[in-house]
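Reviewers asked in the last cycle whether our approach scales beyond single polypeptides. To address this, we selected a multi-component target totalling 753 residues and predicted its structure end to end. The input consisted of the following lines:
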Amino acid sequence: MKVELRDPNKIMKLSRLGSFHQSKLSFLRSFLREFKDWEYKRDLFDLNKFGHGLAIYSFKKDDRVYSLICFANELNEDERSDRVIATKWDAAFTLHDGVPSKNDIERLKNEVPKQEVGRLSYKELTLSRANKSLRVFNHVVESLSNGVQPDTELLSKVGYLYRTTAVYGSGKFGLADRFRIKNREEIYGPFRLEMMLVYLVRQFTFDQVNHVAKSKNPKKAVNLDPEICRKLGIGNSTGLGMAPFIVNHPTLLNNWIYAREVALKEIREIKHVKTEHSNLFKLCLNKSIKNITSWNTDSKYQQEKIKILLKDVKIFIDFLEDKFNFSNEFAFNEIYLWLEKNSREECVEYVVSMMMEPYDDIVNPLISKMSSEEEKYFNIPTHRTVSQLKAILEEKYSKILNIDFSKNKNNQNFWFISKNKEEPRLADRFEENGSELEQPLAIARDIKKLYETLSLHKNSSTIDRFLSSNSDLRHVIRRAFIIEKFPYSEIQDNTIGKSIMPIDMLRLKLSFFGALKFDPKSDKWLRICMFQGAPLPDQLKNYDDHWVYN
Amino acid sequence: MKSLSEIETVSKRSSRAAGYSWGVAEEIGKNIRMLEMFGICGIKNLNYYFRIKKKKQFEKLNLISTKNKIKKWEFCPIIAGLNFLDQVRSLETLKEIKFEKIAYPLLFLPFISRASEVIGKKLELNIDNRLFLLNYNISIYSNSLNEGVVNIGNSVSIKFQENIDSFKVSEWEELYKLSQNTFVEENENSKNMGAGAGLTDND
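The resulting structure, written as structure tokens, was:
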């Protein structure tokens, strides 16, 4: 049986993309698989009794070394802020290419803690900073220094000791450009170095908390139980800075979604599902309920989504147990069709992620196709005709072309770059200043304008002639020719409408990172947890690939 | 040192601020990145051009022809370059294209380099006797690198180089003959049983 790939017009709607969950395709899981054979080492740990100082961790294989350099600093309580606009942090980190020299460390000591206003070099690959979850960190120090393990209920409620507020890479602030490292096989997949930084930072937080507790009470202190460590991840506060990324990298977005869609299609096409595979699917599904019930958030919006998810997943599990037979042909296809009919988007996508768990043979080859050589698709094929371009728009943007942008509600917002932090922001066009400096992120509106303008031109006219008098539409013409080749490259929604939920854009990206427990703090920023439940570095050699559900 | 990513982003944003559309600004960002990567002063030339663009007018050359003469002001290197890139498929039948007075012609250069990739032909750009051989947007050979800012190209020409060999047949044969010394003479059995259709192909 041949199953069609899912329709981009349905899948690329923001509400659907904002319902995506982590899966085997997620980058932090791929990163662990790809680096499990690397040699992990703590090269330097020079902290004072308060936990301030320098630490270096590394991953090494053959001649290649990646070193995380950590600078832990003193921070007054009133200086601690989760916002990207903060200027001081409990700790600052950079991932250095190779073994850092004394000169490198001296140079980085002055630059890394300054983050966006510091300057890095081509020898540095990623940059980040993090703040303690003070309540949890202090509690853990207090407990360990008294020789007892901390309250695991409190720990599981928060999920981490530290929270990062940004992880930068790809040439920002002088960091190495992607072209310098893109041919390295081990980091070919997207965001591998960002994942490595976060993973090593996680270990630093455990080492630091142990060190501070030991310094406080050398005779009595105990180390944090590795099993408790494993259940902790790294928090992350993420705001709108992440949202335009998925608009600005259309071929990359396509390759992420396409991998997911191909995996689903191939799983639905399996005629006879092996018992070991159906058992593993059911096991992951049942165990994953714990991830939903321990998902804490104050956000009413997310609470409602969790409630619906839990309800739908439970109904689905009942269906599986009472009415479903895995020995039916094309069992996963039947499951998928049942879900589309009986569950809501959040649950459909949740189970789609779960379906991949038994199928390394389907998923692993797709992982290597999730990067993109974006430059290849930058040039516009200007020899094509107006009628060809119109046909692309009619086929690929059919829903977008129906939006009436003369209505204020469809044109309500605009995206801009803030002057103080050079970060993307969203504002109300009719209430705030600056819409004349709008970023080119209103793709739906501009595609519609392109379509209307094309209709005034001769069908046989070529795009080079069209462009010579319509250069204001150049950015969307480029996109239209990209979507012709890459069907999942475009969000099929209005990114400036009144009802837009920007966190849907964040959730999409974060689900591919592998984040768990989305905790929206508004419609524009949220907190997440990464690597919660993941093996510790010294457990990497032999670990359970389904750790997310343990 | 600024990364190429920073160079591209700042060039793109400043181009938008200088009045170009976002789509054109994206092209400029890529171009300046490319110039800097090849060791040509992209940032410097762009900065000077934008500085002067505030005070002076430039002509927009929308339709490229064999001889492109200004009416009053110098040509804008961005618009002329962009239209050359867009129209290059219909221009490649021309052997040579001439331009009179292009402002800051080093900003015109990356469009020509990219056009070379689009049509798969080497292009020779001559800016007042500064020669640039643009090789499919992979490399640039020039007699005039590290020149800093070039305010104007009074006489600019582009020659389309046909895809022909740079050597004589005799030179090729001489080298080919030498390369044959790496081959091994086959015996009869190998000739009959080796890959391909063999000696008979009548089935």
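Chain B has a mean pLDDT of 93. We regard this as preliminary and will revisit it once experimental data from Aim 1 are available.
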